[in-house]
């Protein structure tokens, strides 16, 4: 199955570290050397208590993919965790394939893509490349921010001409395209539940939006979230390890 290698890796690290928390390594600093050391510092503190690390433009832009970011990916892999690139791929197929190839060549195990662009001439080349390389593709399905309803919450006509919510059509596409996961904000537990009833456990649900954005772990878990993507509540905490463990305890006590 497409993305199985990535899925197996995250399942294994989640079990080993007893955690469903994916660290969003969204650190900021104007000095690149300080930014790089801050990344290593936070990784050292929390790496044994999270199940994966997600990287965003916060690091790609200042640290360069094949330099600083690749070195950070190697450190994370050496610590036994898979890595996710949050590039929200969103262009024509040929360009998407070039982008995906660079991220996979740098070592990322999975990437996030936007299903709005469709399959043919859009995401098909990304899924094909991911399958060949044993990587995962995670699809945005309902984002965590307030304005998500303007796009993901629109009513659209599905393939059969029936009026449906966009995010439910995307959940079906995730199954059809054999995605490794879908993103549904922890801020919308009712949407997690609806999406999960379509996915029936065959595709994992990844939920950002816990903590700073107001999402509650317990509600999302009950609704069907498999993994939580958490950034600022961990990296800005006085004690990041304690912050992760508090999240792990909430999940563990569920
Ligand atoms: P915070 O600091 O809010 O960071 O815990 C969350 C991280 O996840 C990203 N994010 C999202 N990524 N779909 C995504 O693919 C979403 O709905 C979403 N909401 C937040 C955010 O960029 C940050 O890296």
Describe the structure.
- With 254 residues, this protein is of the alpha/beta class.
- It has a single domain (4-253), classed as TIM Barrel.
- It has 10 helices and 10 strands.
- It has helices at 4-17, 32-46, 57-78, 93-106, 119-133, 166-176, 189-199, 217-223, 232-235, 240-252, and strands at 21-24, 52-55, 83-89, 110-113, 136-142, 155-157, 163-165, 181-184, 204-208, 227-230.
- It has an 8-stranded parallel barrel with strand order 1-2-3-4-5-8-9-10, surrounded by 7 helices.
- Strand 6 and strand 7 (163-165) form a beta hairpin.
- Helix 4 (93-106) runs parallel beside helix 5 and helix 7 (189-199) runs parallel beside helix 8 (217-223).
- The longest helix is centred in the first third of the chain and has 22 residues, at 57-78.
- It is globular.
- 48% of the residues are buried.
- The structure holds xanthosine-5'-monophosphate.
Provide a compact summary of the structure.
The chain contains 10 helices and 10 strands. The chain is of the alpha/beta class and 254 residues long. Helix 4 (93-106) links the parallel strand 3 and strand 4.
Q: Please, what is the CATH homologous superfamily?
A: Aldolase class I
End-to-end Cα distance, whole Å, is 30 Å
Uncertain residue segments:
none
The CATH topology annotation reads as TIM Barrel
Main sheet: strands, sense, barrel:
8 strands, parallel, barrel
DSSP summary: helix tally: 10
Give the class from helix and strand content and strand pairing: alpha/beta
What overall geometry do the principal axes of the alpha carbons give?
A: globular
The level of helicity is 40-55%
């Amino acid at each position: 199955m497409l993305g199985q290698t990535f899925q197996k890796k995250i399942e294994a690290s989640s079990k080993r570290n007893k955690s469903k928390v994916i660290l969003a390594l969204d650190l900021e600093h104007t000095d690149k050397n300080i930014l790089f050391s801050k990344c290593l510092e936070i990784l050292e503190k929390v790496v044994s208590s999270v199940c994966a690390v997600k990287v965003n433009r916060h690091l790609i832009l200042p640290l360069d993919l094949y330099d600083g970011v690749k070195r950070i990916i190697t450190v994370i892999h050496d610590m036994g965790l898979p890595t996710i690139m949050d590039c929200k791929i969103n262009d024509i197929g040929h360009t998407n394939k070039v982008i995906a190839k660079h991220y996979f060549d740098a070592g990322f195990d999975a990437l996030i893509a936007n299903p709005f662009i469709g399959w043919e001439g859009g995401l098909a080349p990304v899924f094909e490349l991911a399958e060949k390389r044993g990587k995962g593709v995670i699809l945005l399905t309902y984002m965590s921010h307030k304005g998500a309803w303007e796009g993901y919450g629109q009513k659209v006509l599905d393939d059969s001409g029936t009026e449906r919510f966009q995010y439910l059509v995307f959940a079906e596409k995730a199954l059809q395209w054999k995605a490794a996961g879908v993103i549904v904000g922890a801020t919308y537990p009712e949407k997690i539940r609806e999406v999960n009833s379509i996915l029936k456990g065959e595709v994992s649900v990844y939920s950002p939006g816990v903590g700073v954005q107001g999402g509650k772990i317990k509600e999302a878990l009950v609704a069907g979230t498999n993994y939580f993507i958490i950034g600022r509540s961990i990296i800005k905490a006085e004690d990041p390890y304690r912050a992760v463990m508090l999240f792990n305890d909430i999940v563990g006590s569920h």
